[in-house]
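README, section 4: Worked example with a bound small molecule

Sections 1 through 3 covered apo chains. Here we extend the same pipeline to holo records, where the ligand is supplied as SMILES alongside the sequence. The molecule in this example is zinc ion. Nothing else about the input changes; the structure line simply encodes the ligand pose together with the chain.
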Amino acid sequence: MRKSDLVKFLFASAAVAALGFYGAGAFAQADTVDAHIAAAKAAAGSDIVSPLSLCNFRQGGGGAQVTYSAEPAKIFDNLYFIGIPGVSAWAITTSAGLIVIDSLDNPGEAQTYIEGGLKKLGLDPTQIKYVIITHAHNDHFGGAQYLADKFHATLVMSETDWGTIERMQPPPAGNTNRGPLPKRGMAVKDGDKVTLGDTSIEVYQTPPHTPGAISLIIPLKDGNQRHTAAFWGGIGFNFPQSEQNYTTYFNSVEKFSKVAQARNADVPMANHSTFDDALKKIDLLKARRAGQPHPFVLGWDTQARIFKVQEECAMAARARLRTAAK
Ligand SMILES: [Zn+2]
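The generated complex, written as structure tokens:
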């Protein structure tokens, strides 16, 4: 390399480095709590509110506060809400039966809100073929064994979280708030598909909310429109507090975000309405008139900003841990 070329090369490298420093947004990406929170807020803009609560570093992570005022609702032609305010459950209709996502806290809730909710919606709970459990926390698996026993549904969880379940203590006898640990069913891993009839749901492992938490890509229909949900399966930061776990969280969002972008995902979804505002959107949906936009369809750009908020809040939390350790 000639000397003048070397100077050009060094100059270009410095420019690239500077772009890297400023490239991700209007804010400098210094690795500090304040810089990451500022970047999260910049990505959130005025319209993304609930996901930004990750930057409050609460450890609860949207755990189940048990109130029962949510009504079951049809969201898309093939997607139904059958959850409660504290935690969501969803049903997907296919040409060969129903796929349920998550099972609430316990058998009583599964009976009242999943089985009962499906009936209220005119759907037949005996057609539940799969129950996909997003992760091994009680508020998602507590009703699963009830659905497996009553409707012969196959329980689906990541291989990693079946292992997590096997290491858990069953709830104390007489505790009806927590459901029994589900018996091992079908195990999925990163990149697998759960297919029923005409519908395939893609599965991606997105730790560390639990080691085997999974996120899903779900095809949706609204009349003759087609949409795609990016369903985030493990939201809160209530995992063992380590810098490595926050790095893992960031990497999981990066990985799933790339898949979601490739699928042009335009419907952000989650398993707690405190994160995806499902209940507010259901109210908007009830008031929707013909020709108006669907309140669950926010577009890829908004989805990408939600991922960015998750990443920046995780990096803020990691910086906070690092500072505290000094
Ligand atoms: Zn959880």
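What to look for in the output: The two ends are 44 Å apart (CA to CA). The pocket of zinc ion is lined by residues 135, 137, 209, 234 (CB under 6 Å).

Section 5 describes how to batch many such records.
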